[in-house]
Amino acid sequence: MASRVNPELVKSLEEFGVTSASTCFNCGNCTAVCNLSTESVPFPRKVIRYLQLGDKDKLMQSPEPWLCYYCGDCSETCPRDADPGEVMMGLRRYLTSLYDWTGLSRLFYTSKAFEIIAILIVGGLVGLGFYFFHGPMLTDRVALNVFAPNRVIEILDLIMAAILSFFLLTNAYRMFGAVMTKPLPGEDPEAARRRRHKLLKGFPAKFYIAEAKEFILNFVTQKKFGLCQKKEKMIQWVVHLLIMTGYSTIFLLVVVGIRWFQRDEIYPIWHPIRLLGYYGTFAILYGVTYAMIRRLKKDETAYKHSHSTDWIFLILLWLTTFTGILIHVTRLLEMPLSTYYIYVIHLMIAVPMLVLEVPFAKWAHQLYRPMIIYLMKVRERASSAK
Ligand code: SF4
Ligand code: SF4
To answer: Which of 253, 245, 255 is nearest to 288 (CA)?
Structure first.
């Protein structure tokens, strides 16, 4: 079966932020300068060609967009101003929408109004939930766990985490299926397609187990980002790492550790939970503020173009962090009513950010990227075992 080709695809990807791919004349300069491109998986030229041809099936199977960390080197040297770095960024958005079986991701990326309305609806539901079901608002002291008992929040958190995981993992499974049934070098395409119905897509479990460390290592360190950067661009890696580790720390504290994180007594300054909270808050606030300023200044290739979803993600994350800090301050200043109201506002921002961004938009790359690097290692192992 031949791949489906659609010359209109390149046009339809403009909504995902891919506006310059048509000007590429396939010289290969970008692939030559990219530090992350390899002989076995060269990019970005090849996927830009798939895009120009409108070969959706080949794009869906392509790991390359996730191997790019958007340093911008290729865009700075492209003789046609095709902006290959930005094309790869737009392709990541497009692929996220292809993996997502619900169709919501596509709507978020192609309709700003839809994303804003979805955020308002989810935020409004959180507000209504508190309006009808909040606990007593004691005013003689700050009693957050009377107003919103952490045992109840914990159950709601776990339900939310289970739903998010379901959507994120089912989407990730579609990505896994597409990437792992791409023919190996020298493999008959028909044989590769038949692997689609096999367990683990026809690769032995021992290959997946042997390479599992790659997933963990790349998830935690994003070390390939460091390889991509010129020395003066290392700050981008640091900022990315701060946002990712800060976000993961706070996510774990509020979803898994809420009964220790949301306490009415104030922990001493050296307490590990308080220190973790400070680290996560500082890391996100610094990283997100930095990214917002650079996007406003547009003084670096990677920050020149911003899709509306980039801004919405950064703004939600910044506001979630800022209102989190305000809750901490009002608790320290013993201001009960302010604490309760800000707590509700905080959750009206944080919940839509998690519910919508984790499985369907920007955040999903935190899983897809290390997962692709890991799957590429499994494929390499399978190729050399042939
Ligand atoms: S994106 Fe630019 S550098 Fe890359 S192949 Fe096309 S024209 Fe050449
Ligand atoms: S932006 Fe950087 S990592 Fe991405 S394709 Fe271009 S040179 Fe490679």
So the answer is: 245
